[in-house]
């Protein structure tokens, strides 16, 4: 849905928006290494110095004894969404991350407003990593979920684990036995799953599965004045860079609660150019949207664009041009003179 139709929310979005740094959303790698645990940068008094795509500072939450970790939780609208929270340092960060997905577990006091844990109460997990595959063994309590939550659990576990450098795929087990399908509704999972299986799959339009491909794009959501980014996987005919831009312009389904800052008149004037893991995009002036008079580019538009494109293999940064000119102005008045990189962590907040 167009942000122009959500003027009340737009005001709070702009006022509270996290301003991008000159070199990117935050900078850094997409994944986090498991051994040793990778932490954020701290000042001498133990406070984190960086901020990510989320709307709040984490200075009061992160300490020298914590590691910022993405937990894929369920929001009030039923979307599976990353929330980055400071978890205690441990050598078993993959297992710990899943432990924090258990309802009634240690995540309870940390849950952001409107979010819930995804794994059934008292579920226990073990994680063994071999050849970039996380073999996850769940206790019998894992079966105690509602059928309508099955895909959400599958996606939450997979995307939480694949944030780490050493994990690309996930294999599910129950009490030591391989699972080729989920235990309640029977969703097929085969030998293993990955991010290629998608997340928050948009089925609002009937498509020919055999002649389409998957593409994951990020839209904006709002909970009590706090903004966060939701990944949505669609079946599209064109999942190239230009095709992904087209999906962002098309926006979220009208039946969803998601928001979008792209004007429907936004167009690419040239084919995207990829060089040294950087993609350069040349847009028409419609990219400015409601800021066209001031030639300012929306922070949330830029965030959605960078998050969506850096999901693609081989893309690490995005350079935005308008009518062939690269020096754009951000909402804080600073010039955007360098390519924008993906943040280390998505939706970081102090809760």
Describe the protein in words.
Helix 4 (241-250) crosses helix 5 (299-309). The chain is an alpha+beta fold and 351 residues long. The strands form five sheets. Strands 3-4-5-6 form a four-stranded mixed β-sheet. The protein is globular, with a radius of gyration of 20 Å. The two termini are 28 Å apart. The chain folds into two domains: 33-197, no CATH class; 209-341, no CATH class. 43% of the residues are buried. It is 14% helix and 23% strand. The chain has helices at 7-16, 93-99, 150-161, 241-250, 299-309; strands spanning 66-74, 80-88, 125-130, 133-138, 169-174, 177-178, 213-223, 226-236, 273-275, 278-283, 317-322, 328-329, 335-336, 340-341.
SSE diagram, text form:
Elements: H1 7-16, E1 66-74, E2 80-88, H2 93-99, E3 125-130, E4 133-138, H3 150-161, E5 169-174, E6 177-178, E7 213-223, E8 226-236, H4 241-250, E9 273-275, E10 278-283, H5 299-309, E11 317-322, E12 328-329, E13 335-336, E14 340-341
Parallel strand pairs: 4-5, 10-11
Antiparallel strand pairs: 1-2, 3-4, 5-6, 7-8, 9-10, 11-14, 12-13
Helix pairs in contact: 4-5
Organism: Anoxybacillus andreesenii
Domain GerMN: 94-183, 241-331
InterPro entries: GerMN (IPR019606)
Strand order of the largest sheet: 3-4-5-6
Number of domains: 2
| Sheet with the most strands, sense and barrel status | 4 strands, mixed
Give the rounded overall mean pLDDT: 83
- Element string (H = helix, E = strand): HEEHEEHEEEEHEEHEEEE
Q: Whole-number radius of gyration?
A: 20 Å
Helix coverage percent of residues? 10-25%
> In whole angstroms, how far apart are the ends?
28 Å
Low-confidence stretches: 2-60
The dominant shape is globular
Strand content: 15-25%
State the total count of DSSP E strands. Answer: 14
Number of helices: 5
Q: Which structural class matches the secondary elements?
A: alpha+beta
Organism: Anoxybacillus andreesenii
Protein name: Germination protein M
InterPro entries: GerMN (IPR019606)
Domain GerMN: 94-183, 241-331
